[in-house]
Amino acid sequence: MSDEQDAALVEAARGGDQDAWEQLYRRVYPRLRAYLARRVGDAGVEDVVNETMTRAVAGIGRMRLGPAGFDGWLFGIARHVAADHHRRNRRSERHVAATFVAGGALEVEAEPGVELLLAEDHARVRRAFDALRPEQRELLELRVIAGLSAEQTAAVLGKRAGAVRTAQSRALQRLRELLEHDDG
Q: Which CATH architecture fits 105-184?
């Protein structure tokens, strides 16, 4: 979608056009859900996506469409909603003796043994990804999982696009190193 089309949809949504909101939502939902699932886990992702969109609808009148576009603005909101989610969970964990375990079942229809190999590969990549510094994980989640451009990611993180590209290169190099040294 072009910047002009994006701007037109945002203006229409700002004016209360439900069709415009639906188009914006449908366009961004898969990437938004993937980003937030990585940040909060599958168990709470729908609530966090809904809260993000609720805040977006409430705040669209104050939004200034900058170089990061609607996506950069929305993922900035999502980042704050995920942080709020974690703060709420930490508070409730102090009051309730419960442990939250994030994860999901691997659903693959394949020959015997393939599921096990895929699960091992998945676990290996997750271990390496989890070993990255938090800021490296977040940057890769925004760039790779959410599919934001360097400029949009820069707007979300409060950095310059060039700094995002450099940090992404370093984070990917570190991930490769961790994968090379993981014996499984």
A: Orthogonal Bundle (1.10)
Alpha carbon distance 74, 100 (integer Å):
27
Going from the C-alpha of 117 to that of each of 38, 88, 134, 181, the distances in angstroms are: 22, 36, 28, 18
Domain boundaries, given as residue ranges, for the chain: 1-103, 105-184
Give the length of the chain.
184
154 C-beta neighbours (distance < 10 Å), count: 22
The third-level CATH classification (topology) of the domain covering 1-103 is Rna Polymerase Sigma Factor; Chain: A (1.10.1740)
Q: Quick check: 97 and 155 in contact, CB under 8 A? A: no
63 CA to centre of own chain: 20
For 21-79, how does the pLDDT look when each residue is reduced to its tens digit (9 = 90+)? 999 999 999 999 999 998 888 888 999 999 999 899 888 888 888 888 899 999 999 99
> CA–CA separation, 172 vs 152, rounded Å?
19
Contact 143, 153 (CB under 8 A): yes
